[in-house]
Amino acid sequence: MNILIIGSGGREHTLAWKIKQSPKTTTVFVAPGNAGTAELATNLPIGVSDFDAIKKAVLQHQIKMVIVGPEVPLVEGIADFFENDDQLNHVLVIGPKKHGATLEGSKDFAKEFMAKHNIPTAKYQSFTAEQLEQGYAFLDKMKAPYVLKADGLAAGKGVLILDDLKEAKLELKAMLVDSKFGSASTTVVVEEFLSGIELSCFVLTNGEQYKILPFAKDYKRIGEGDTGLNTGGMGAISPVPFVDKDFANKIEEKVVKPTIEGLKKDNIQFNGFIFIGLINVDGEPLVIEYNVRMGDPETEVVFPRIKNDVVALFEAVGNGTLDSIALEIEPKTASTVIAVSGGYPEAYEKGKVITGLESVEETLVFHAGTKTNNNSIETNGGRVLAFTSFGNNHQEALEKSYQNLQKINFEGMNYRKDIGFDL
Ligand code: AMP
Ligand code: GLY
Hints:
This protein has helices at about 10-20, 35-40, 50-60, 70-75, 80-85, 100-105, 105-115, 130-140, 165-175, 245-265, 300, 310-320, 395-405, and strands at about 1-5, 30, 40-45, 65-70, 90-95, 125-130, 145-150, 160, 185-190, 195-205, 210, 215-220, 220-225, 225-230, 235-240, 270-280, 285-290, 335-340, 365, 370-375, 375-380, 385-390. A hairpin with a 4-residue loop joins strand 10 and strand 11. It has 13 helices and 22 strands. Helix 6 (about 100-105) packs across helix 7 and helix 8 (about 130-140) runs antiparallel to helix 9 (about 165-175). It is of the alpha+beta class and about 425 residues long. The structure holds adenosine monophosphate and glycine. The site of adenosine monophosphate has 11 residues, from strand 7 and strand 17.
């Protein structure tokens, strides 16, 4: 079968690498892909939101399965587009339709869903510009730090955490009245600050049956010791050492099951991944957010640990037989460290030649922002490469990633040297 992956990051390279290993796969296509996906798949120069061009490619290459990497095309309705098109509705899309994608596309919708289905999360209230005064009054009643969230997609930048009440009110006004995050902050969720350690839970589901994939923890801040600006993710580890049987059980009973039940009750059809951002507050899992796709860089540690034929798993989502498959998980720890461009997550340059890739050993290199230029591989984004290794524990796995990172270079290359520091 021919399979198309939509996206261009480390997540999509990892998915392409894993899908390529399935005996069910004939050719893997990636739109638009990167220099890494070009080595094992066919890149198509198509943007993730260009549904008409995607349709043409699907028909031309007789593609039978589409895996949607990033959230934007899902929120824009790519799965509905396939379902409503007579020439495309036989294609299995791994990714929810618009209604389900609203769990990521609107934080207010997600919070309402959690409240309705008794899913543990921070206390909150939502406000629009007309309700600014009520917003101020709500902030007056809260304790610092204050958490303000733009309702819509804001490329990971829409969450502000502020220590000062005055500043929180100014920011609330900037978001609601001055459109600080454009239309994404037409509604703002104000919520209670939760203190604890975060982790990521990934669920593959068809809206009725589900599989919980390996837990992972990512490191979002640019600076060591979790300091500085937020990034797309600087590294990840799976499994998560503090998730024992008891905590995993709580996550399944208190969060995953009510989430799946909630989808059913609300008549939300959902084929794809639910990425539940969790925080461990005194031994209890609380939901920070839902995403409707795999995480990046978590995919770079989660998928290498899945031993199953993933194409068979995706087919089981499509035909309702997930329950008949048992997940087989590599018990070793996988860790990934991301090499980023100098300056990222602020302004950075592209087009720097990457050297030394041929000398990497015992480590999987997944490309994120790379492109081929003549015979060389160049940087083409903020996050450039993910170095994934296995070990008996996260220290051992990380050591391999760090050893291999020293073998490669590009001008301005930066990476965090303390992934796993808090475990
Ligand atoms: P989100 O986009 O909702 O995942 O928020 C981005 C980041 O902000 C999260 O990964 C957390 O580190 C932090 N965050 C969000 N909500 C809260 C909260 N209620 N309490 C503490 N930290 C939060
Ligand atoms: N690693 C966080 C994300 O993919 O959003």
